[in-house]
Amino acid sequence: MSFSIKKEGEVVVVDVEGQLIVGNRQELKQKVLDELERGEKKFLIDFSQTGYIDSSGLGVLVSLSKKIREQGGELRLANLNDDLKTLFELTKLDTLFQIADTRERALQSF
Amino acid sequence: MSAAITNKVPPPGDDVRVVELEIPSDVRFIEDVVELIRHECEVMDFARGQIMLNVPVALSEALSNAILRGNGEDPAKHVHVRAEVDTKRLVVEVGDEGDGFDFDAPSADPTTPENLQREDGRGLFLMRALMDRVERVDGARGSVVRMTLNRE
């Protein structure tokens, strides 16, 4: 499980490869916060290569969303598979995040 | 981290698969335990969504509760896992060596507007939402959570 970060235009794109769970959530949080500190404002987290997410992974997404907003930035999520969609619907987090079906749509939505 | 994870019970046959193991109080072991048990569910032909969502998320929650809250990440304490899977259901027990956590305390609904932006408070909610039954049973050394999922 790992996270890769790259810049597409003005957007920082994070790919979550594998699981986002209690054992690695801090790594994701730190990577995004480092970019935020560098002055980046637009963030997209892409879940096309993600397995499952536990409650602490969801908690980190909520936390990052708040911190990015506080800095005047925006966060989008993209490419949730059916199981991840179900997870977001169960927790009603689909109402909290802006979620796009594809990376391209998410990038266009900024 | 898979070297330390060995199933104590070899598969007894095609009808029922049993996984029994213990792990140190370290969250890095969670993923391997989840893989082992969901593989058994796959062998027993559980529905894809159960293998990809219900089993891994609920089990991951139970394991992290036992490691972080039950055992307080004490390296001297272990987490004990026993899973029995057949073509009807998965019954998995996760036991710690501590006082467990306050399983029965009324917990706030994490889906209400006032709680939606909280970072925590979704673990037990997800276990209950993703399993058919979640209960606390008496364990020899500490607290045991038993979860049951009927095969779809």
Describe this structure in words.
The complex is a heterodimer of chains A (110) and B (152). With 110 residues, chain A is of the alpha/beta class. Chain A has 4 helices and 6 strands. In chain A, strands 1, 2, 3, 4, 5 and 6 form a 6-stranded mixed β-sheet that branches. In chain A, helix 1 runs parallel beside helix 2. The longest helix of chain A is centred in the middle third of the chain and has 16 residues. Chain A is globular. Chain A starts with a strand and ends with a helix. Chain B has 152 residues and is of the alpha+beta class. Helix content of chain B is 30%, strand content 26%. A 5-stranded antiparallel β-sheet of chain B has the order 1-2-3-5-4. The model of chain B has no long low-confidence stretch (mean pLDDT 90).
CATH superfamily of chain A: STAS domain
Principal-axes geometry of chain A comes out as globular
Rg for CA atoms of chain A: 13 Å
Structurally, the number of domains of chain B stands at 1
Summarize the structure.
Chain A is α/β, with parallel strands linked by helices and 110 residues long. Chain A is built from 4 helices and 6 strands; from the N terminus they run E-E-H-E-E-H-E-H-E-H.
Describe the secondary structure blueprint for this structure.
The complex is a heterodimer of chains A (110) and B (152).
Chain A: E1 2-8, E2 11-20, H1 25-37, E3 42-46, E4 50-53, H2 55-70, E5 74-78, H3 82-90, E6 98-100, H4 103-108
Helix pairs in contact in A: 1-2
Chain B: E1 16-24, H1 30-43, H2 48-70, E2 78-86, E3 89-95, H3 123-130, E4 133-138, E5 143-150
Antiparallel strand pairs in B: 1-2, 2-3, 3-5, 4-5
Helix pairs in contact in B: 1-2, 2-3
Descriptive labels:
heterodimer, A: 110 residues, alpha/beta, Transcription Regulator spoIIAA, six-stranded mixed β-sheet, 4 helices, 40% helix, 31% strand, globular, B: 152 residues, alpha+beta, Heat Shock Protein 90, five-stranded antiparallel β-sheet, 30% helix
